[in-house]
Amino acid sequence: MRVVAAMSGGVDSAVAAARMLDAGHEVVGVHLALAQSASTLRESARGCCTIEDAGDARRVADRLGIPFYVWDMAQRFREDVVEDFEREYAAGRTPNPCLRCNEKIKFAALLDKALALGFDAVATGHYAQVEEHDDADAPGGVRRELHRAVDDAKDQSYVLGVLDADQLARSFFPLGDTTKPQIREEARERGFSVAKKPDSHDICFIADGDTRGYLAKRLGERPGPIVDPDGEVLGEHGGAHGYTVGQRRGLGLKVPPADGSKRYVVSTDTRTNTVVVGPEELLGVDLLEGEHLRWCGTPPAAGTEMELGAQIRAHGREYPARVSMREDAGEGIPAGVTVRLAERVRGVAPGQSVVLYDGTRVVGSATITGTGRAAC
């Protein structure tokens, strides 16, 4: 099988490429240039797409003896990930750019280009597993399922929850059965210079980790009130888009609470440019509404209900949930989902993603459009 190995310049993608080669595939290494003006050296563990990263990926490819190319996808990344991120915050939502990157770049733009050039599949260094099962109704008689990795601490099935069945059929994740320490040891044994290279962290295009500062530069300052649930003004902010539900630090409130309790952002409204803060008990929600559905297999029928697990953050807990597939306009495929969590969860904001699991299997995902509390 002819496989494109996406090589970021890190240790995970290096070992993934090596394992695909060991498995007998014809492998070509590809580094995605996602920054329109890549820096020479990474500024921190958060950065990516530097000239250093491309060089590290090339050295691994040379050691493996495989062809290596750099594909420029900076414009596509800017439009589909960075600008989407800015639009979502401007609208008062809290997006996850890693999911959007996987959906739009690594398993859409990259995979589409690979297929157009005659390749059969793409391999990445994500920590997840693919299981194959005989199924007469599936293409080629084999059904592929996406499952959690064996290393709970590194499991990345959450950010892969946007893959559909066709993309999953052409994707390989060779690291899912291995822990991170084992991957680093394997890289050392293979003589890869990246064996001790630190992991990068999202958000990759905000190298210093200052999301509010980044948004202020892109969206501008727009002073407005910070109020309590009764509307009393407690302080001022520089733009509601710079705040997210559950945030406690950096509020700069001028009026302390009478009982000395901590205050958190409980909602934002970019239309009125208002940030509402309140006590911790106001943060808990157990009802989620979701749209922009992505199914890692056959979509469930509209109108059905399922007992599934729901995960709301990349490395967060999985919560038992009852998931209802909202009726569509007659297509038979759900137009949205309602997720009723078994317990209340703090700090859930519109724009985040909920990924649904059946055991270790990823069923699909949805973008959260609203939250609330189910009637007792």
UniProtKB/TrEMBL annotation:
List, alphabetically, the GO terms of the cellular component aspect. cytoplasm
Q: Where in the cell is it found?
A: Cytoplasm
- Specify which residues bind ATP according to the UniProt entry for this protein: 6-13, 32, 125
Q: Does the keyword tRNA processing apply?
A: yes
Which Gene3D superfamilies does the UniProt record give?
A: Adenine nucleotide alpha hydrolases-like domains, HUPs, Translation factors
Broad class of where this protein is predominantly found:
cytoplasm
Residues the record marks as active site: 101 (nucleophile), 204 (cysteine persulfide intermediate)
**Which InterPro entries would you find in this protein's record?**
MnmA-like, MnmA-like_C, MnmA-like_central, MnmA-like_central_sf, Rossmann-like_a/b/a_fold
Q: Which SUPFAM superfamilies match?
A: Adenine nucleotide alpha hydrolases-like (SSF52402)
Q: Which top EC class applies here?
A: transferase
Q: Which HAMAP family match?
A: tRNA_thiouridyl_MnmA
Q: What NCBIfam families would the database entry show?
A: PRK00143.1, trmU
Write down what this protein is called: tRNA-specific 2-thiouridylase MnmA
The organism named in the record is Serinicoccus hydrothermalis
> Which classification does the entry list for the species?
Bacteria, Bacillati, Actinomycetota, Actinomycetes, Micrococcales
